Amino acid sequence: MGWSRQLKLLFSLSLVLLLLPINAGFVLANEKLLIPMGHSIGIKMDLSGVFVTNDVMLEKDVWLKAGDLIEKVDNVSIQKLEGFEKSVSNTHNLQKISMQILRDVEIVQIQSSSEAVKRLLPFLKDRTEGTGTLTYVDPEKGTYGALGHQIIDSAFNSPPSFTDGSIYLSKIGQIRKSMPGNPGYKISSIVKDEHILGSIKKNGVYGIFGTWNKAYKQVLAEPLEIMQPSTVKEGEAEIYTTVKGTEVESFSIQITNVEKDQFHFTLTDTKLLETTGGILQGMSGSPVIQNGKFAGAVTHMFVDEPEKGAALFLSTMRTGEQ
């Protein structure tokens, strides 16, 4: 993300979002006021087809590559994994199956036995999932922003091509603590699949953005003014995040360095450090508040010093929604 000072193997703190209710009392004339969130969220994105997750050899010298999109099986268009399964389930094991593959921008035709093609199933996906933290809700526009960075699918090492996506309230069940050289993470689960907090309309460099569904309960703060980067200073601040259940809590930090594109901070809250050992994967998107204003969102951690991290200015993150 072009940080001016190199972070040692910065881990994108994967998907975690939070919810909040929007009502007439939150509708403000000043669109510069945003509600800081901090909730843990589950993320589900429906991919634009059936993709191969690993390099797989079907037969001698016949390979599928990670990221290949299966467009057709025996001239039948494939949109979902269940469609692929249906196309190959009734074929004889020795029967040849033809597949049309989109590899980068090239169309590739592949033929292999039905037996070999059926073995592909564990290496195919039509959905990507993850966790993260909800950053803000815009009560006037009915939109949200989360994560502060782009979702990169680990199977493809690139942003996933998706047709639809949703965020859900997530409950933290366990914490694996961060240690120097070994980032920790949250173990979480979606509270209710049928309760969608919002839709995902954009997966951009500064986070995921979409429409808010007027969901959920109380938050830690009323809508706050967006802090301009020039007014963010070294000194005390706080982050809102979730480390147990669905409860959002405030924890103290110290902003240690303010740069052109980001600011660095150190966790100083002893309760948080005892619980997590430092920043966790999944905290990405946690709001940063300074002097009663909304300064930014946590985006990265220093792997060798997990109590230290970096944050994106909220004004920069907001440009990603446009």
Explain how this protein is built.
This protein is mostly beta strands. The protein folds into two domains: 24-46 and 127-319, Thrombin, subunit H, CATH 2.40.10.120; 49-125, Pdz3 Domain (Roll). The protein contains four helices and 23 strands. The chain has helices spanning 81-89, 114-118, 270-276, 314-319, and strands spanning 33-36, 40-52, 56-59, 62-64, 69-73, 76-77, 96-103, 106-113, 124-138, 143-146, 162-176, 184-190, 196-199, 202-204, 207-211, 224-225, 235-244, 247-258, 263-267, 280-281, 287-290, 293-302, 305-313. The protein has a 15-stranded mixed beta sheet that branches. A hairpin with a 4-residue loop joins strand 18 and strand 19. The longest helix has 9 residues, at 81-89. It is elongated and about 70 Å long. The protein starts with 32 loop residues before the first strand and ends with a helix. The model is unreliable at 1-30 (pLDDT under 50).
